[in-house]
Amino acid sequence: MNIKAYMAIMRVRFMLLVQYRVAALAGIATQLMFGFVFVMILEAFYFSSTVLQPMSLKEAIGYIWIGQAMLGMLPWGGDAEIQNLIRSGNVAYELCRPLDLYNHWYARAIALRVAPTVLRALPLFLVSLFLLPQEYALEIPTSTAFLAWVLATLGALFLGSAITNLINISMLWTISGEGISRLLPALVTVFSGMVVPLPLLPDWSQKVLTLLPFAGLVDTPARFFTGQLAPSEIWISTARQLIWTIVLIIWGRRLLQRGLRRLVVQGG
Amino acid sequence: MTGVRLYFRYLGVSFRSQLQYPASFIMMTVGHLVVTAIEFFGLWALFDRFGSLGDWALAEVALFYGMVHVAFAIAEAAARGFDVLHRHVRTGDFDRILLRPRSTVLQVMGLEFQLMRIGRFTQGFVVLIWGISKVGIVWTLPKYLLMALSILGGCFLFVGLFVLQAVLSFWSVDSLEVVNLTTYGGVETAKVPIAIYKGWFRRFFTWIIPLATINYFPLMAVLDHQDPLNTPLWLSWLSPFFGIAFFTMSLQVWKMGLKYYHSTGS
Amino acid sequence: MAQIVVRDLTKVFKVAHRKAGVWQAIKGLVKREYNPVRALDGVSFEVGRGELVGYLGPNGAGKSTTVKILSGILVPDSGLCKIINRIPWQERAAHVQDIGVVFGQRSQLWWDLPVMDSFELLRDIYRLGPVDFNDTLEELVETLNLSAFLGVPVRQLSLGQRMRCELTASLLHRPKLLFLDEPTIGLDAVSKLVVRDFIKRLNKEHGTTILLTTHDMDDVEALCHRVMIIGRGQILMEGKLKDIRQRFARERRFIVELGNRYVEEEVKGRISKAELIYLEGNQAHFNFDPTIVTPAELLHELSAEFEVRDVLIENPPIDEVIARLYEELAI
After folding, report:
1. Which sign does the torsion angle of CA C137, C143, C144, C148 carry?
2. Residues A253-263: pLDDT tens digits?
3. Is residue C38 part of a domain?
4. Contact residues, A window 4-23, toward B, CB-based 8 Å cutoff
C-alpha cells in the first residue's frame, strides 16, 4: 500500500473525529476527570502508608496522565468497518483487491489508533503539564527521557495495531471473535497498566507482567516519560516491543490465511 | 392497560429479542462482568500494596463500591432507552414514539432493557455481600433497609442523569459524552468514600450531583467509622429521597426538551 | 365536512452549514454558521372526510414537514392546523389515537421478534379491547394475506411482506385518518399492486381519509382523487390529476406504423399539424394538441402522404407530465 492511500485513510479518520466537535471536547473532559479521580485516589493511598514504594507519588501521577493522554492508542477493539464487512459477508470482495489484506488492515489499524490520539493527547498534555496545580501536574521530562518516550510510544503504536488487527481477524470466527473482542479489552486494560500502574501491582507478579506483550502499550512509555525507567533501558524495552509485534504479526497472518480459507470453503 | 403493566410487556418483548442469540448474550454478559470487575481488582491491588485508603479498610470500601455498582447496573439496564435515544432521534425513529398515545418516558424506557448489565450487577453484588460479611459491625434490619433504599435512590439518580443526557440529544448529538462525566465518572468517583476527595470536587458530587446520597451518607449511619464530613444522622436517613427528587426534576427538563423537539424536529 | 384544515402554515429551520477541508472543520469547533431554510411558507389546504389525496413535490419541497405537523410531531411557527377539530400538537394523545402513519423507509415493528408479537404489543399500547383487536386483525390478515408469516421474525420478511405488516400495524387501532409516506418505495411489481389495491379498498370500504405522499406517479394515478403539489414551501397547484394533465400536458402522442422506412427529413417536411419527436425504422411518434387538431384530421393528413398500417394514441406518461410541471413551476 502506498503512502498516499495511507495518508488518505488518516485524513478521513481525522476529519470524521473533528466533525463531532463537542464530542472531541467532551472526550477530553471525560479523560481529565477520570485521570483526576484516579490521581486523588492514589494520593489518598500514598498518604496512608509510610513504606517506601516502587514508584514515587509524583511518578505515579505522571504515569496516570500519560496513560490518559495515550488512551486512544490502546487496542480496545477492532475496526468497526472491517467487522461490518465480515459480518455482512462482503469481506469476500476484499479478496478481489490487488493488495495484501493483512498489510491493508494493519495500515487501517494504525490510522484508527493515531487519529484519536493526536486529537486528544495534545490538549491532555497541555492541561496536565501546565494548567494543573503543582502537586497533580505532569512533570516535564529530561530531553533523553523524552526521546526514549517517543521511541517507546512508536513501539506501542505498532504493537497496539498488531493487537487491533488480531481482533479484526478473530471476527472471521463469529462467536469466538465476539468473545475475544469482549474479553481482550479487559486483559489490555489490566496488563497494560491502565487500571493500576504496573509497578504498584504485587511484587510477585512483576516478572510475568513485563514478559506479557501488554506492558509495551502503556507501562513502558509512561515509565520513560516519568523517569521511573532510565533512558538507557530503551534498547531492551524496544526490543521487547518489537519481538512481540513481530510475533503477533506472524500469528495474525497465519490466522488470517486460515480464516479466509475457511470463509472460501464455507462460502461465508 | 396501565403504564406499569405496559412496561412489563415491553420488558418481556425486550428480553425475548435479546435471548434470540443466546451465545452472543452470554458472551456479552460475561464480558461485561469481567470488564467491570476489573475495577475492584484495581482497588484490591492498591490495598494489597498500601494497606489502607486513608483510614478506610478494604471491607468498608467494598460496601461503597458494591452499592454504587449495583445501583448503576440497574439504572443502566432500565434506562438504556435514554442512553441510546440519540440514535433514535437521528434516524427519526423517535417520531414513532410521539405517534403513540402513551407517555413518552414509558415508551423510551421500553425501547430496551439491557439484560447483559447483569454482569456489572453480579460483581457489584458479590463485592457488597463480601463487604457486609467482612466489615465486622453489628447488622440490624434498619441498616439493611437503609442500604436497600439508598441503592434504589441511587438508581433514580442515575436514571435521572440518563434522562438529562437524552434531553441533550435533542440539541446536539455530539455533546452527549459530557454526561459520561457524571454517570460513568460518577461510578468511578463514588466507588470509594467521597470524603477522600478535595474541596470543590467533593462538593460538586455531594450537592450538584448528589452522588454522596447513594452510599456515603447512608453508610455513615451504618458503619462504626469516624466521619470526616460529620454527616448529620437525619441526612443519612433521608438520602434515598435525594435520588427521587433528582429524577423528578429531570422529568421536568425532559418535558422542556420535548417542547424544543416539537419546535425543531430532528 | 373537512377533516383536515390547514391555513397559512409556516415553518423555518436553521441549518448549520459546514465547509469542506480540515481547517474549516477545526474552525467549526469554535463557531458554526446557520442558514435559515423556509420549509413551509404559507401552506393552506383542506381534505374532506373519505378523500384520498396525493401530496406531491420534489425532494425538500416541504412534504415531510407538512406530514410531521399534521401528525403532531412538529409545531409550526405560525398558521392554523385542525384535524378532526383538534390541534394536533396540543392534544397529542387524543390526536394520535385517530391517525395512523406509515413511513415507507422506516419500520415500526420489533425487528427481532415475530410479527404477531409486535401486533400484540401495539394492542396494549393503544389499549384495544380483545374483541375489537381480534376482529380488526382478522380482517387485515385476510385482506393483506398475512397468515403465512405472522410467526416469522420481522428481520426475515421480504420488503413486500414487511410493508403489508407495517400497514396492518398502523391500522390496528382503526384510525380515521391515514398518512402514507412513500408506502410503495422499493417494492416489487406484485407487492406494489397488493398495497395499492389495499389502500383503495380501505378508502372505499371504511371511508378512511388518506393523505399519500409519494414519488411513484403510478400510485397517484391509480389511487388519488385529487393531488396537491408543493414546491418551495408553497402549494403551487391542486386539483384532479386529469385537470393537471390538461393544463400541463395537453399534447397526446400519436404513434403510427408506416408502410416503408423513412428518414427524418422526409417525414418532417410532409406533416404540418403535429410534431415529429421520434422515428425509428417505420415507426413514427408525433405529439399533437387535441384542441388544435383532432386525431381524425391528423390521420387524414398522414394517410394522404404515407401508407399507414397501424395507429395508437397515448397520453404522455405521468412521470413526464410531473417532470414538466416541476420544470415549469421552477421547483
Report:
1. positive
2. 999 999 888 77
3. no
4. 20-23
